[in-house]
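Changelog-adjacent note: as of this version, every example in the card shows the full chain rather than a window. The one below runs 476 residues end to end.
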Amino acid sequence: MAMSFADLGLSESTLQALADVGYESPSPIQEQAIPSLLAGSDVIGQAQTGTGKTAAFGLPIMEYIDSSDPEVQALVLTPTRELCIQVTQALRTYGAHTGIDVVAVFGGAPIRSQQAQLRAGGHVVVGTVGRVLDLISRHSLVLHACRFLVLDEADEMLDLGFLEDVEKILSLTPSSRQTALFSATMPPPIRKLADRYMYDPVIIQVEAATLTIDTVAQFQLPVDAKDKADKLVEVLRSEAPEQAIVFVRTKIRCDQLYRTLRDRGMNVRALHGDMSQGSRDGVMLAFKGGRVPILVATDVAARGLDISTVTHVINYDVPTSPDTYVHRIGRTGRVGRSGRAITFVESRQKRELEAIERHIGTAIATWEKGVIAAPTPVKERPRRHSKPQISRRDEQEPYVKLVLGGGRASGLRVADIVSAVTSSADLDGEAVRDVLVLDRFSFLSVPAGEADRVIDLLNGREVRGRTLSMQRVEAS
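Full-length structure tokens:
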């Protein structure tokens, strides 16, 4: 007999909130994490978005908070603004019958309004690392009564270079706190962090790829580059999704495709990193509220989107790695529901698709209008590595070395440089190679075809208080 949320030891008010939103039975990570957290244990959960991890830590938080005590009793750290907003909305839903106040704090929004919200209350604070530190330094966020701390998507915090700041925040919370850490992968720096700041944690692992494949019908669609937009319109009209996310690689393509679909009469919005925070919030709320059926998005902008009503994911551009593929299609087929994922494949991308098939252990069927095909197993499934990599482009493509004015003496780190290049030039992380940070200079390599654009976009950009200057390394 399937376990129910009532079996996990949750209170009536929390069970009522779950009933209000139609949650019926817990996912595997919820089944394992909730009793451990309610028992007071520290927990490490290795799981990706889509496995139900927000409820796995959010529901126990609701049980811990004393709503009559105005102090901050729980802190959830997230790597991105989008995930911060998403988690905040979920926690407010779980605490709907409790009087618990959840405050979101993140960059890109006026700090004064967030300070005012904290003065007015805030039993639970959900925040991005930088803004949380900023508010602590201004004495607007005080953590001496914080009994519960969550690090959500810790590997993403590592990739973005936030781990040092995370440690600062951890050092400012009571040593008696209870800590939960969730991460899709467990690289050594994350394990080291857990060893240093967690006490005898219960370790829970959920294999995201298995969960995803069980609940998502996957298809590939061979296309010519020139026909992709027309083919997308055909697929959307044939599939008639309740809600679909269409993933593209770059911000420019995101805007172009959004305009194309809009001009074809579709109710569609775009979501990417160049939009103002207010615009991004508006798009997320409209999509989450069901007012917009189609969202065209980049990976970075859509990270943390956790919307149970998404029926379709369309990879308009083939993902840059098998892990990204699993992460994208995990946006549909949420716990207890089925979904469909369709990947557009140009002839030059067949090797990338084959790498994805090997990684997930499934041959992806070809999409045909109105036909539903079952996935077939691939004979050889390699052992899964933490972050499998495939090339984002032809391995023969030449790379160009660039030199950056600024290095360790300016406080620059490898993660700062990679983050600046990938976010400004909308390049994949795999495309930035050979990063070397010296005392006063740094070096990196990017694809030759992107070099001029990277130089234009980064010259004059400010990172860690220093204005960057970048140029090619002249061949001797």
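Structural remarks: The first helix runs from residue 12 to 20.
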